[in-house]
Design a protein that fits this description.
The radius of gyration is 19 Å and the shape is globular. By secondary structure, it is α+β, with helices and mostly antiparallel strands. The strands form 2 sheets. It has a 5-stranded antiparallel sheet with strand order 2-3-4-5-6. It has a two-stranded antiparallel ribbon with strand order 1-7. The relative contact order is 0.18. Helix 4 (172-185) packs across helix 8 (220-229) and helix 6 (197-204) packs antiparallel against helix 9. Helix content is 40%, strand content 14%. The chain has 2 domains: 7-163 and 250-271, no CATH class; 172-243, no CATH class. The longest helix has 19 residues, at 23-41. The chain is built from 10 helices and 7 strands.
Length: 272
């Protein structure tokens, strides 16, 4: 089984060659996605593929919004190309036409589909027809970081579709096994909040901590106890686990199979 790695792992393991003219731009992109987008969507960002621009190897990012919308995106220093889709048959979403656009449609507009050749790092099956109203899958352009953030913010706050959730018993031993199995696959994610940021936030929320006389800096054992005890926290954990698993195991990462392959393939571009 393929195991994709997270953007956080990538950034902890590598540094761009100082001779690259667009080094700072590349680093800015990584920081923007990790810190600004990652905080907004409350989910680890995975690297599902890679592409080159200005001699810099850049990630193709993959993550799932809390409402189940899947997102794959890349930026090549000229703008973002983004694919989104939902698997729920009853779900759809719409995009703000002031924030996104397609390519030229031959009629003076920008409502045309994005050709696969302009979706660098994408597999062909990740590219969908351009559509912004009541769609289940679409690929589009976003001109800058601000518009991308605004678009994702609107989708996170305005669409309340539920991620498939199967409730089952979770004792502390089972939780510890789940967490340890992830750490075995991703050893540099050495903090609970690296993997389950939303669950960690809920457990350490000031009101929750005071109400239940908990620690503001809980150790893993206390975290597992709280998750197993409180239904709302357990549901949050299971939904986060689902989102993490989806892109950790997402297929089609022919150019980002794992850290070892990246180290070898891109040794000339990236220095550890």
């Amino acid at each position: 089984m393929k195991t994709n790695f997270t953007l956080l792992e990538f950034m902890r393991d590598f540094k761009y060659d100082s001779n690259l003219l667009w080094k700072k731009n590349a680093e800015h992109q990584l920081l923007f996605v990790r810190d600004t987008i990652g905080t907004l969507v409350k989910s680890p960002i995975f690297i599902v593929s890679t592409h080159y621009s200005k001699s810099c190897m850049l990630p193709v990012y993959g993550f799932m919004l809390p409402n189940g919308i899947r997102v794959i995106m890349r930026e090549n220093f000229y703008g973002w190309v983004v694919s989104m889709w939902v698997d729920n048959e009853s779900a759809s979403f719409s995009l703000d036409e002031g924030l996104v656009h397609g390519d030229g449609d031959g009629n003076g507009g920008h409502n045309g589909d994005i050709h696969e050749c302009y979706c660098e790092g994408f597999k062909d099956e990740w590219v969908f027809p351009f559509q912004i109203k009541e769609t289940k899958a679409t690929t589009f352009r976003v001109d800058d970081d601000f518009k991308l953030y605004t678009l994702l913010y609107k989708l996170v706050t305005e669409y309340n579709n539920e991620i498939p959730f199967v409730d089952y018993e979770l004792d502390t031993e089972r939780l510890e096994n789940i967490y340890n199995s992830i750490i075995e696959r991703h050893p540099s994610l050495d903090k609970f909040y690296d993997v389950f940021p939303e669950t960690y936030y809920k457990v350490t929320n000031d009101d929750f901590v005071k109400k239940h006389s908990l620690s503001y800096w809980p150790k893993n054992e206390e975290l597992f106890t709280v998750i197993s005890k409180f239904q709302g926290i357990k549901e949050c954990f299971l939904k986060e686990y689902y989102r993490f698993n989806f892109f950790e195991r997402f297929e089609g990462t022919n150019r980002a199979d794992g850290l070892e392959e990246i180290r070898g393939t891109f040794a000339k571009t990236i220095k550890r």
